[in-house]
Design goal:
The chain is α/β, with parallel strands linked by helices and 241 residues long. The protein is 37% helix and 25% strand. It binds adenosine-5'-triphosphate (ATP) and magnesium ion (MG).
């Protein structure tokens, strides 16, 4: 579904991503781990072209995304993204946040969008918050609304950039559980996270990055029980699991 080929990213003279190669298959649940500053967010941003790669290619279902001919906005609809800081519109109620994109893009009529939004809110137990403003929600609730908002467009790939790092432990669990449930539906997901227990429970593939490079890749078992590189061994020793 997604192929990243020899991708590099430089900001001025600083090389932030070096020759990244990555294939994500349908239904993969990929976790990206690595120390702060190693380039995880930049990689996600290069995948959906918020950042333009300096070198290399990103192909989504065979379509080269960093190609002038490609209508990136059309493809972005298929790639949902959820950030650490929810990014809900503060002046819009929950329901209006959720239906904004599909209605504006002409994907759903307003009444269809409201119906779908209600179903999704119901599924995650937030029906009663439909007419509240984001500031009236807890962090965990806001993040779950942000996830639903992304799901309204029926993305084929969902990317999450540290979706729980701004949350306290209880709220973290709500959001991590929702992501695990999404994984079980067969949605293809890439999650950047520092939550190692979640990675073990959730991912079928783990990517370890350091200094802008993919150092090791494997199943959670490979990565956590049988790390090969010196870098990964050090990383695992320094985090509390
Ligand atoms: N727009 C930018 N201009 C210059 N340097 C940048 C820019 N964006 C990121 N960087 C640098 O690129 C490196 C990788 O940043 P990135 O945000 O991708 O790291 P990360 O792995 O997501 O870290 P964290 O776990 O802290 O979120 C950092 O050294 C950062 O300072
Ligand atoms: Mg980051």
């Amino acid at each position: 579904m997604l192929v990243v080929k020899n991708l590099s990213k430089r900001f001025g003279k600083t090389t932030v991503l070096k020759n990244i190669n990555l294939v994500v298959n349908k239904k993969d649940r990929v976790a990206i781990i690595g120390s702060s500053g190693c380039g995880k967010s930049t990689l996600l941003r290069c995948i959906n072209q918020i950042e333009t790669p300096s070198d290399g290619k990103v192909l989504f279902e065979g379509i080269p995304l960093n190609d002038k001919e490609t209508d990136i906005n059309k493809i972005r609809i298929k790639m949902g993204m959820v950030f650490q800081q929810f990014n809900l519109f503060p002046h819009l109620k929950v329901i209006d946040n959720i239906i904004l994109a599909p209605v504006k893009l002409g994907i759903l009529k307003k009444d269809e969008a409201i119906k779908k939004a209600k179903e999704l809110l119901n599924k995650i137990g937030l029906s009663e918050k439909i007419n509240n403003y984001p500031k009236e929600l807890s962090g965990g609730q806001m993040q779950r609304v942000a996830i639903i908002r992304a799901l309204m467009l029926d993305p084929e790939l969902m990317m999450f950039d540290e979706p729980t790092s701004a949350l306290d432990p209880k709220m973290k669990l709500e959001v991590l559980d929702l992501m695990k449930d999404l994984g079980k539906t067969g949605l293809t997901m890439i999650v950047v996270t520092h939550e190692m227990q979640f990675v073990k429970d959730f991912a079928n593939r783990v990517i370890f990055m350091e200094n802008g490079e993919i150092i090791e890749e494997g199943s959670p078992k490979d990565i956590f029980n049988n790390p090969k590189s010196k870098e990964l061994k050090e990383f695992l020793e320094n985090i509390c699991i």
